[in-house]
Design brief:
heterodimer; A: mainly beta; seven-stranded mixed β-sheet; four-stranded antiparallel β-sheet; 11 strands; B: four-stranded antiparallel β-sheet; 12 strands; 0% helix
């Protein structure tokens, strides 16, 4: 009965590779988000989708491409991974603009 | 640009001590305010939120926060902390009528000694 789930939980890969992180929510929410938490635990929004439509696109390298096949899923694909991409990536969902529910996070390590 | 500032980066308390974590934001318009907690190895959970109404809001696990509009502050309080409150605490703001984008503070690490 997990509300917001992410896969994988851990991802270790080499520089230059392409990887994807998947997110699913079973709360019936319309809006989903991706946040990046850096090594100092600072959280910053990357993207947001509302009903499969991109509504927030922060200053993120275009190597990052979100995709929302339906409103319950928001995936994050990263091309040509760099050392600086190492972080914990959190998916979240909300109904309207209010309280956001976060997933467990995906710890990405780029070597 | 809007920002959120948490004054205490690392707080160490003994059990039963009182807690107050500071949070200030920079935005002159209407805001929604949140405190999230991240226990070790877990995801963020909402502690409490303020949208409108009574500026003193109560959350889960005995936490409360007070919105003081004139000071652009939303400080988190708990009268008596427990060892299980050891966690990372994040203050966050979203702009009313906006897309729901949360702007987070840098977080405060709370360590409670038994």
């Amino acid at each position: 009965d997990t509300a917001v789930s992410q896969t994988p939980k851990y991802l270790v890969t080499q520089m230059g590779n392409d990887k994807s992180i998947k997110c699913e929510q079973n709360l019936g929410h319309d809006t989903m988000y991706w946040y990046k938490q850096d090594s100092k635990k600072f959280l910053k929004i990357m993207f947001s989708y509302n009903n499969k439509e991109l509504i927030i696109n922060e200053t993120v390298p275009n190597r990052f491409s979100p995709k929302s096949p339906d409103k319950a899923h928001l995936n994050l694909h990263i091309n040509s991974l760099e050392l600086g991409d190492s972080a914990v990536y959190f998916c979240a969902s909300s109904q309207s603009i209010y309280e956001q529910y976060f997933g467990p996070g995906t710890r990405l390590t780029v070597t | 640009a809007q920002s959120v500032s948490q004054h205490n980066h690392h707080v160490i308390l003994s059990e039963a001590a009182s807690l107050e974590l500071g949070c200030n934001y920079s935005y002159g318009g209407t805001v929604n305010l949140f405190w999230y907690v991240q226990y070790p190895g877990q995801h963020l959970q909402l502690l409490l939120k303020y949208f409108s109404g009574d500026p003193l809001v109560k959350g889960i696990k005995g936490f409360e926060a007070e919105f003081i509009k004139s000071k652009f502050s939303f400080n988190l309080r708990k009268p008596s902390v427990q060892w299980s409150d050891t966690a990372e605490y994040f203050c966050a703001v979203s702009l009313s009528g906006n897309t729901g984008k949360l702007i987070f503070g840098q977080g405060t690490t709370l360590q409670v000694k038994p």
